[in-house]
Amino acid sequence: MFEWVVGIVESMGYLGIFLLMFIENVFPPIPSEVIMPLAGFAAARGELELWLVILSGTLGSIAGAWFWYFIGLWFGRKRCEWIIDRYGRWLTLSREDFDKAYDWFHWRAGWAVGLGRMLPTIRTLISVPAGVARMPQLAFLAWTSLGTIGWTALLAYAGVILESHYDAVESYIDPLSKGVIAVVVIVYVYRLVTFKPSPRRP
């Protein structure tokens, strides 16, 4: 994955960064923690402009967030409840869990989206409840942009700072990415085994 991301950034430049960050939001196993620091490396070497690196990454990430927002908007609350009633065990989510999350999100949507966009894994998933809760689109765009700019700028600047250690990056990023995936799988299996569904409602 590391070499593939490097190849895209080197061959496609800003467009490659945009596309990678869009894909990263649609298909989370491609981590932004790899994409943006690599783009920052390129900027540190004078191959790209740092502000355009941040802009390209931010726009691609926002486009991916919009994708999941509209998925959530299309599903809506009723479809989500129908899915949870039938497949809640496999989602490790009960109707009660969903109702609590929905009520919490309804009152804290702005902060949830803004901060959620700066947290690994959560930054992708947070767009779905925003759509399900029918968060106003302009508010969603504003909070998503705020959080996304902060995240992409932080990662890009990290790439600039670590530019002298470019050759050593792969040795710790790949294991870290695999470790994150392993933790997600372990947590899912635990929740699956200990899951207790709520009584089904009409």
UniProtKB/TrEMBL annotation:
Membrane topology, as annotated: Multi-pass membrane protein
Domain VTT, first and last residues per copy: 30-159
Record has Ion transport as a keyword: no
Main location as per UniProt: membrane
Pfam families xref list: VTT_dom (PF09335)
InterPro entries tied to this protein: DedA_domain, VTT_dom
Keywords: Cell membrane, Membrane, Transmembrane, Transmembrane helix
Transmembrane spans: 12-30, 50-76, 138-160, 172-193
Places the protein is found: Cell membrane
GO cellular component: plasma membrane
Highest taxon of the lineage: Bacteria
Name of the protein in question: DedA family protein
Organism for this UniProt entry: Methylobrevis albus
